[in-house]
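During the reporting period the student researcher (J.K.) took over the structure-prediction task from the postdoctoral fellow and processed the backlog of single-chain submissions. One of the processed entries is reproduced below for the supervisory committee.
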Amino acid sequence: MLFTAQTGSLVAGLLISLIQARWMEPAEMGRFAFCLAIIMVGGVFFEFGLFSAGARVLALEHDSERQRRALGALVILTAIVGLGFSSFIAAASWPIDAIFKKDVHWLLLGTAMLAFFQPFQYFIELGCQGLNRIRLLSVFQLLMSGTYLTMLAALTAARHLTAGLALGAYLTGIAVATIWTIGRLQPAFKGASPYVRTTIRQAREYGMNLYFARITGIASSRADQLVIAYFLADAAPLGIYAIVQKFANPLAMLGRSVALTRFRAFAQLARVPGRLTRWNAAMLTSAALGLIIAGPLAIRILFPKYSTGINLLTPFALANLFVGLFQPYNIFLTSHGRGAEVRNIAAAVAVASLLGLSITVPRWGILGAAWTAAAVMALDYVLHLYYYQKFKGTLGSQE
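J.K. obtained the following structure tokens:
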């Protein structure tokens, strides 16, 4: 079910990318991509491990009324996080512009209120994952991407598609989907205070490792756009990089959708089923080859203004192939509370990414950044496989 919904979201995401590639100039696309990276990276710092801990609390709670109270606690905590994050975006808009010189302070300031809903996206994903509410998570994904697509299409028809309005449409999609989904989850706020304390305690004991892992993980996955924005004064190369990257991102989402559905089941298993990893690898390899073969011609014909980014397709396809391949192992380790292992992987990948980008971007520009991403995601896959095999051996010795 989630895979079907993710496929629908992938189609919507592809249409969004097509609209942006067709009707947004590379420089304007670069400003949008830069602001989106700021919001996504900044949002992770405000999570504090609460959502990962909350998902585990929900997964271990079997009484429906207690689950609703735990959800109420998570909604309260997420709202506090959202208010803090929204205030941060407003306050940081001018310093960010002073450092990166991309003329985006009014853009960030204008969308700061909507940024309140950014943390709710991760909360709902992990909350539905912990409750195994896959149908609801599926609708959330479709509603979020569908609202975003509809608003972009309307802006395009009105000839008002700018970086600021595109960012507003993205955040509005999250807001609409969040409000609807929370209404369907029916959290209970009465009696939620004990679960607030439980979630905070779990965040300290378990969630902080995943919090640092997520910080370093998002840093490695989004650092490329920030490093490009820092070293390259013109926003157009970043726009080209971001558009081509968006064409390849659905590969990783395919692997993640497969793994997410098994979170609750993985918590009870001693290993990842072989048939799942084989099916996942076959699906991802076929999709990557299709992108490498058909992608260049499609960009030349449909999006000539972005044709200079064709040479980025191969490294992006490889990077997302490896991201999709390690998703089952990542979800397996997370479901077993192996936060330290996930943290170690993310830390190693983040260091490798930042070091690689600082060398390749000044010398080779966006092509260097793309190949760095491919190499770093290959390292990520190898480390996930290593820690999975190590932990699986530990489980085997306990049987």
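The committee noted the following: The mean pLDDT is 86.
J.K. will present the remaining backlog at the next meeting.
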